[in-house]
Amino acid sequence: METTTGNVRRRTEERRRDTLERLGGERDIWVSTAHPEHGPHQVPLWFLWDGQAVWLCTTAASATARNVRAEPRVRLALQDTMDVVLLQGEAECFSDREVPGEAADAYTAKFGWDPRTEEAPHLYVRVAPRTVRAWHGVPELRGRVVMRDGVWVE
Question: Is the pTM of this model over 0.85?
């Protein structure tokens, strides 16, 4: 993917295409959760984009796992501050015994690591975005919402 910096403003369909390309190709995503009693928590995790949702995996005892069980609303962010992609949605949790095999197998294929084989229990988290924002700098702040209410903006 060719990233644009400067004053060139991409059309919505270009932003959507670039966002989908990054979701399909990148490895790490920042995950922001919050617990009603313990407050906010942010951590980078590996992720898999299945074309509809982001899949994450963490130990079942982690702060992220505790938080999404108590408060499923999450925010996700790809790492490049010059090419911003922010996703917002609700987490759906699956134990390593209940995770759909297709999702777990795809995660394993991408990372060469199968959390289901670990001694400590793991939690798979699926986040189908409801809102996606994408922009390159100030010229793209207007129109940065590329998904609204779970539907890509035309």
Answer: yes
